Amino acid sequence: MAPQKLYAGAKLREMRTRLTLTQKDFAAKLGVSLPYLNQMENNNRPVSTTVVLALAQEFGLDVTELSSGDSERLVSDMREALADPVFADDAPPLADLRLTASNAPALARAFLELHRAYRQTHERLASLDEALGREDSRIQASPWEEVRDFFHYCDNYIDAVDRAAEHFAGGADSRSAAISTLRDLGVTVKEVEMDSLRHYDATNRTLQLSNRATPQTQVFQLLLQVALLRQNKLLEATLDFARFNSAEARAIAKIGLANYFAGAALMPYGRFLAAARDCRHDLELLATRFGASIEQVAHRLSTLQRPGSKGIPFFFVRVDQAGTITKRHSATRLQFARFGGACPLWNVHRAFETPGRFLRQLAETPDGIRYISLARDVSKSGGSFGSPVRRYAIALGCEVRHADAIVYADNMDVDNESAYEPIGISCRICERQHCHQRSVPPLERKLTINTDTRGVLPYEVS
Fold first, then answer.
1. What is the mean pLDDT for each group of 10 consecutive residues in the chain (462 residues)?
2. Residues 6+ apart with CB under 8 A from 12
3. Which residues form the HTH cro/C1-type domain (predicted)?
4. Three-class SS state of 101
5. Cα separation of 409 and 406, whole Å?
6. pTM greater than 0.85
7. Which CATH class is domain 9-67?
8. In this structure, what are the phi and psi dihedrals at residue 215, rounded to the nearest 5 degrees?
């Protein structure tokens, strides 16, 4: 098979802009002519091996960054947006979407923002009586969606915050380090009987933690408070860079960044990556070693995307019992639906049926990519009799080519084609013809309706 050519014009332009170099100066540092650089930046020519080496030597670039990034996410998100019935038969082919994502990512994001505004307006009109009675009726993204997309397109890795957390952790015990830091800041830590997990009284500089919470949760909340107090300038600078559209989105994102710091301090990048490789990504061993929960470990594994020191690209998702995705991230080519739930054929939905057990699945998406997926239920008790129990299921997975590095792939028949279950992303953009769980027809296929025959579906996908 001939090697695939690398087109990375958007990445080259982005890097040159970040370095504040003119095309002439950038071309000189790469050892190429100005016209040649111009052609590469416009994807008229692939990036040559010589240029790749020059980028690594001259600028210390992790060359894997050239073939990664937003493209797969943008393509997936555009396909989902174009599955909206408003586009009917006018949706562009997949090849055009890939060209747009690679050549004009800013245009792709503008289209997604426009479609999101349309969707929100349409939903408001559908409940006009309610919308007219609200003073905050608007078409900008909801704060939650805006923050979700911020982390989504940052690859769920925030370098400055991650490195600050790693520096803070050092080699000390996380709980002791957090309490010591808070005491140095004049904060008194108390464990009390209360429903909330954490309450900080800024006036009296007192931090209260629920004595019902698990030790893992208590440590996480301590580290989160450290982030909010000691790393406030860093968090605010990151928020300034993100340029959120509302104060609510900024406030939600600040909590998200503080949570990120807490997870990164609990599981420092270098030590956690080495431990994950050593135990072949055994979630239970990692949870015990770092004093974290299974969910915290799974989420952390999906963030190990530091340039020059990347872990295995994982996807991570959390769903509730209704199938709604409440957390999602993918460093793989598998992308999740922005709206609605996950594919019902995915093992994450079956995790609720087998509490306390890991479920393994070999799965294949319509593009032919094969994955190993691990799912487990996660129950979060209220800590007392009668308190509500929150139940979720989480899934963690990667491409099957990484099976040798994953303990959960042991004894699975990864070379047997029939062992792979067909899964998709969203019914509207899934092109499988014979899926027995299909809820709506696929966007890019014609349908055949036969009134004399009824199969699994009331139509046939051609």
1. 63 82 87 86 80 80 61 78 72 79 81 81 56 48 81 86 94 88 95 91 95 91 96 95 90 95 96 97 96 94 91 92 85 72 84 92 90 92 78 94 95 93 80 78 72 75 72
2. 37, 40, 41, 47
3. 12-66
4. helix
5. 6
6. no
7. mainly alpha
8. -55, -40
